Amino acid sequence: MLEILDALASAMEGGLPCAAATVVRATGSVPRPVGTSMLISGNGTITGSLSGGCVEAAVVAVAEDALADGRPRLESFGYSDTDAFAAGLTCGGTLDVMIQPFSPVMLPDLPAAGTPCALLTRMDGPMSAPLLVSDPAAAAATPAELLSRHGAGLRALLDADPLPAAARLAPLIAAGRTGQVDLGGPECGGAVLFLESRLAAPRLVLVGSNDFSDALARQGRLLGYHVTVCDARPAFTTPDRFPAAHQVTVQWPDQYLRQQDQSGALDARSVICVLTHDARFDVTVLAAALQLNVAYVGAMGSRRSHETRMAALAAAGVTPLQLQRLHSPVGLDIGAASPEETALSVFAEIVAARSGAAASGLPLRDGTGPIHPFNRLHVS
């Protein structure tokens, strides 16, 4: 969503009408998750992709019609047994795509690039302009706060009292969810909404200044993380050694993690990798990291180092449940040797860990069922 909203903001500033095509429902095996968007500008520029090529041409054609008459559409694209040339997904899944035309007067105050926000669009009946929620963590911290900031917009969107809907929507918006929300019931106007969230980039904290940190920084930046390299040694910890990192900080890593946690800069999507190979750093920083509510904590080292480290962590008071969260030795076994291959191994494990039960970690050819089981409200 981030790239699409930035392109939309640019188009609005230039007075250029455009249409956003967004996947609002996905069933079966589909290549992209709910919330994936593509922007079609009035000058023919296309940003993003919905399916990797299966249905893009058909979506663009519908978007051009939407731009011509100003009316939104909800279209379904799926595999067709009867017409091999029909626009569809050869992988067998189905995508419901909402095509919403925009003009510069509809969203005059789009947030700056990278700023967290959320869009609420009504899907049932005649679709209207979406409601933009800036700073969703604060604006939807409670239903009362959501009503205070956006009560009038919700009332216009629902054509009903916004109070019952705010109770349902506030926790979803604050958590950065994306997906359909069926409010149901006459008290909410029977509305079906589509919620799109754009969160700040997830954090990747790399502890240790070495070639592995450099490779992971490059990989992390490619995957959309905000990358920090942290080490207490000033001679090794310089920005020129880690050009892909957003931040390079000289500090004791355990202190840095605690400060970041206290400031709210770390969240349940954050990733921490300890790459120091030095017991002076490893035990203290891992003991701090394993107490945090983050997505992944990994530590590099041999199996022998791992056994020594686990014993030291247990002696330092880290609980067995916390120790189970540690990915060590870090990465998946793909035969990696170089720092770049190791970064690939580590990020393969990070992606699998963040995907939860949906990821087996096995070769796709050895599995069954849909390859892309995206059909639920998800967190970016």
Model description:
- With 380 residues, this protein is an alpha/beta fold.
- The chain has three domains: 2-102, no CATH class; 117-198; 203-364, NAD(P)-binding Rossmann-like Domain (Rossmann fold), CATH 3.40.50.
- 33% of the residues lie in helices and 22% in strands.
- It has helices spanning 2-13, 56-69, 136-139, 143-158, 163-174, 211-222, 253-262, 279-289, 303-315, 320-323, 339-355, and strands spanning 18-27, 37-41, 46-48, 73-78, 94-102, 117-122, 131-134, 177-182, 192-198, 203-207, 226-231, 247-250, 271-274, 296-299, 326-327, 378-379.
- Strands 12-11-10-13-14-15 form a six-stranded parallel β-sheet, with helices on both faces. Strands 3-2-1-5-4 form a five-stranded antiparallel β-sheet, sandwiched between helices. A five-stranded antiparallel β-sheet has the order 7-6-9-8-16, with helices on one face.
- Helix 4 packs across helix 5 (163-174), helix 6 crosses helix 11 (339-355) and helix 7 (253-262) packs parallel to helix 8 (279-289).
- It is globular, with a radius of gyration of 23 Å.
CATH architecture of the largest domain: 3-Layer(aba) Sandwich
Kindly state the percentage of residues in helix.
25-40%
- How much is the average pLDDT? 83
CATH superfamily of the largest domain: NAD(P)-binding Rossmann-like Domain
CATH class of the largest domain: Alpha Beta
Spell out the helices and strands N to C: HEEEHEEEEHHHEEEHEEHEHEHHEHE
Structural class: alpha/beta
What integer value in Å does the Rg equal?
23 Å
- Number of helical stretches of at least 4 residues: 11
Low-confidence stretches: 81-89, 374-380
Q: Specify the overall morphology.
A: globular
User: How many runs of DSSP E, i.e. beta strands?
Assistant: 16
